[in-house]
User: Which sequence fits this backbone?
């Protein structure tokens, strides 16, 4: 069952409570990313584009690839729009970088709290405000989905992940219960 973001206590991403989910990444100059995001669409719902060449060609993106991801190929895209609900949670086998182009709210939880039957208690979700220009890492074990609006304003978010994450998945043999939730490359999704 989807839940409205107002059901959660909003915390700053700088709070100690965020440290179990990820950390703020300092030292990267993201001004070029913020500027390049200016012309990206801002629909009334949510749009996600996993890979945008103009963003990937920026110097800061090359630094994310060489430094943060240790030389692994990455993709740089965006998630923009308007959202006030928790409708699903996803996770990856790798950390995700989010760059807040606008103020935005992340609704997040921990993969360790998924029950054996692959259900998740949404009372465990926490809400964090990420301010414009902040860069955050969400650990691979952090459950997350599309950001939410802050004070009613739509959001724009740069999303950095290993290359091909969230792209079309080829057919595969399901071996474990978790495999049922593998909905795209490197994306496990629990819908509510």
Assistant:
């Amino acid at each position: 069952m989807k839940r409205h973001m107002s059901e959660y206590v909003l915390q700053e991403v700088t709070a100690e409570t965020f440290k179990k989910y990820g950390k703020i990444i300092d030292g990267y100059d993201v001004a070029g990313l913020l500027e390049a995001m200016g012309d990206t669409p801002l629909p009334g719902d949510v749009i996600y584009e996993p890979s945008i060449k103009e963003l990937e060609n920026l110097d800061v993106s090359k630094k994310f690839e060489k430094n943060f991801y240790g030389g692994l190929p990455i993709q740089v895209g965006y998630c923009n729009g308007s959202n006030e609900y928790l409708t699903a949670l996803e996770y990856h086998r790798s950390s995700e970088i989010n760059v807040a182009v606008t103020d935005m709210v992340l609704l997040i939880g921990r993969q360790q709290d998924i029950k054996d039957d692959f259900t998740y208690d949404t009372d465990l979700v926490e809400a964090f405000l990420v301010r414009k220009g902040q860069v955050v890492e969400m650990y691979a074990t952090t459950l997350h989905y599309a950001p939410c609006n802050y004070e009613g304003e739509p959001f724009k978010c740069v999303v950095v992940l290993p290359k091909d994450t969230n792209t079309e998945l080829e057919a595969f043999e399901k071996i474990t219960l978790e495999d049922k939730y593998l909905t795209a490359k490197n994306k496990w999704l629990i819908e509510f």
Summary: The mean pLDDT is 97. Helices lie at 31-36, 53-56, 59-68.
